[in-house]
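Protein 1 of 2
SEQ + STRUCT:
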Amino acid sequence: MKKASHGCHVRKKEKVVKYKECRRNHAANVGGYAVDGCREFMASGEEGTREALKCAACGCHRSFHKREVEREAFWDCSGDSTDK
């Protein structure tokens, strides 16, 4: 466990990935640029299935959506943690 400057300990770091607006260019085949306006990826099915990679809102694959990585840290300030 790492000790933070304010006396608490970082127990675990978790990476959270979110998929935002769709960036698929629907007019690419005619030399233009047009997006569908989908603002956030919503899975069409349960995690672990093929449908989980398809957006319920726009029908595109998840890879067309902007990927954002957020990092969260969980702190343990209970006072009974020890440095190892």
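Protein 2 of 2
SEQ + STRUCT:
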Amino acid sequence: MAMAAASGRHVVAVPYPGRGHINPMLVVCRQLAAADAGLSVTVVVTEEWHALLAAAGVSATLPDRVRLATIPNVIRSEHGRGADWVGFFEAVHAKMGEPVERLLDRLEPRPDAVVVDTYLTWGVAAGAARGIPVCSLWTMPATFFLALYHMDRWPPVDGPEGEEGQSCKSLDQYIPFPVLSSVKCSDIKILRSLAMELPMKRVAQVFSNLRKAQCVLFASVYELESGAINGIAQVLPCPIYTVGPSIPHMSLEGNSDKIRHEKYSDWLDAQPKNSVLYVSFGSHVSVPSSQLEAFAMGLHDSAVRFFWVARDKAVTTTLQQISGDKGLVVPWCDQLKVLSHPSVGGFLSHCGWNSTMEAVFAGVPVLASPVGWDQLVNARLVADEWKIGINSREQRREDGIVSRATISAAVTKLMDLADGDSLEMRRRAEELREASRSAIQEGGSSWRSLCSFARDLAEGKLNVVETSR
């Protein structure tokens, strides 16, 4: 990604303090450091996250041009935040901005630009108050961004038609708005629920603040979401750059088929090609115990081999007892490398955006089990638009649980290499795999966009005084 080096400019990156946000921000920072544009990057994290990154070996692998800086642990711990993510979101809104601003004021050299996670409600204002260009990073699908951007145009779920004569006559109906064709009325109902009132208020604030940003980055691939990305380009008053998939794909280079130095590698190596279902529900998603049990029993009934990442020790023991010799349960793994292993032929996932992008990058079909927020839209992209998987949420019972029998049937279908639907999902998954990998190669859509962003930063084209409104 070479370009003529300019005089060194200092970029400060501030991710939302969660694994699903920090990881893509770090990928973008690595790419900026590698762009040969004379950019150095300081990534701001809490003291807790600094320790977590060090323990995981991430800090030691950062390029010379990328360093970490810390703020105090003014928010609650990363551990267990899934049990009250709304409270965590509100704490980030109320408590994190002030220490970040103090850090901005004492950093040397002075920041020439700030890349902030879009969900940091105070991020744009912090940069604007100091005359620093602000670039907003959206770490979820462009489709979900556009849905939230247009939430004032959402049709009523109940009651009379909206101003444009649109309404949700059925919760199973897709929103009658062309660029939101992957969002259903049932998704809107969840986002409009009383429990979501405060988060949606903050999101409205976020999108209002975006009008003062100098640009927006998307951790997506143009070829995967061209309709949504084109729609965003028409409504935002600033440049946009698609730089995804913002996943740690660099670790696969030259070692895509073998996982070294891990205890589980021998087990994976011993399984037939495409025979293993990888199971993971992310770093903090809270899945009810009754649903976890249904997943485990359904997998047992399907007789499909599976590799399950379960971080809770008690859960790990229970799952291993249920799985017997058909499955392996571990507390952690390198997810992208496992998905890229030849023995892995499917992914049972909560459909967080990073996990979804890693499945696409590995060319693995998905059995989606979304819990909430953008996962609902991600699962619809997977099953309905991209057609690389099955959305199990569509088959929930009245109590909200997907049954043991339903899971067994879905797993069997997804992993049956003789089934016509499964073969078609695999063909489509392979197409998207090639598209996502081509995007980051020299000349690809994401490569060109990232180069353009790095160049614009280095040459000062995104400076506040040069941005018209």
